[in-house]
Amino acid sequence: MRIVVIGAGEVGFDVARMLSEEQHDVFVVDNDADVLHRVRRKLDVMTVHGNGTSASVLEDARIHEANMVVAVTAVDEVNLVACMMADRLGVPTTIARTRTSEAERKQAVLSTQDFGIDLAIHPEEAAAAEVVRLIQRASASEVLTFCAEQLQLIGVRIDPDSEVVGASMKELVAIDADIDFRIKAILRGNKTILPDGAERIQADDHLFIMTRPTCVSAVTKLLGKKDMQIRHIMIAGGTRVGVRTAQHIMRDCPDCRVKLIEPNADRAAQLAADLPNVLVLQGDTTDVELLVEEGLKDMDAFVAVSNKEEANLVTCLMAKEYGVHKTVAQLSKVAYIPMSEQLGLDAAVSTKLAVSHEVQRFFRGQHVLSVATVHGLNAEILEAYASPGAPITRGPLHKLDLPDGLLVAAVNHENGPIEIATGDTHIQANDRAIVFVLPTSVEHIESLFGT
Fold first, then answer.
1. In the chain, how many domains are there?
2. Average pLDDT over residues 87-109
3. Molecular function terms in GO for this entry (predicted)?
4. Is the N or the C terminus of the chain less surrounded, counting Cβ atoms within 10 Å?
């Protein structure tokens, strides 16, 4: 597939890297020659210097031969116009990064459809939603939702003194048959494991568990964790992510008490007017005295979402020292995320990864409906559609010769319940399955779920 990526910043670079690793023919367009030099030096892609809204520049990128255009510059107008031009030139699929939310877009004179855009990605909105999910599940390092939020994948780190250390997957599930859950992946050091029933839990394992929202508290308790209620939250940074996080919290938890710290006086005044149920304070988000004075020690959660990711890391670690139960930092550099875990940060979110996930969904194949990844886990989580007559429908999972590096986590049956998968699970035609897959086995998805 030939794909043109417009914008070679942090987001564009990551999208181009991902696509080139999948052996796609990638052209990257940017008006900054130095940025393009970095792209050429690190990635196996072609580059074109110029403005992504210029017809001649797009011609140089061989736009007429492209199957997809992904516009991810930092300027909404450039992304919208570039996609509109690509659509007019016959490009089948166009994707645009936009900072305007879905609700705001609905009020606009022109919609994304008017620009010929197939998918508008709002990374800040996605990051804010992830922050709220993490806050709602205080003991989880990650929270992903599936099947219209009827299933959750939670990440839990196992303490060395946990009673479950040494237990096998099968033994753990047998402790309480009333808790509906299965461990679907383990991050052990830097190694990703898709476990069978005999795999045993080790100290410091990072478990990824598929369960139902009603069972999360019981699962975390079983693993020796306390799933406390988060009610008092401090947000450091009045950025788009910070504002949307505050809005989501107050919508989902009216009883919560939120304080938001914003350094710029004019911005703080505007946010105070826009967020009447949030206490907005003007001040330096890295000022320890200010944060302590404003009740840092009494906070259940601390969220650092300023535009300075090093400051986000430092303030979260400082909040941890003051006894805050849950800390979440926004990190744009994915390489920082493993380091943040080693330093003791509870969770991290990345606006950049949100764009990559959405782009992946378009080129994985027609039977893949959505894609998710988890920080540090060398596996993708795919939602796949089972076509009539597909090999995956030919019997219970334990009787199928499935490739190594592929594990079915759950099944949304077309004419039945949503099931957390076991060896006895039988996927039927038109069912939707949640599948963990290592990079070496991604190529098997189409052949297993297609005809």
1. 4
2. 75
3. potassium ion transmembrane transporter activity
4. C
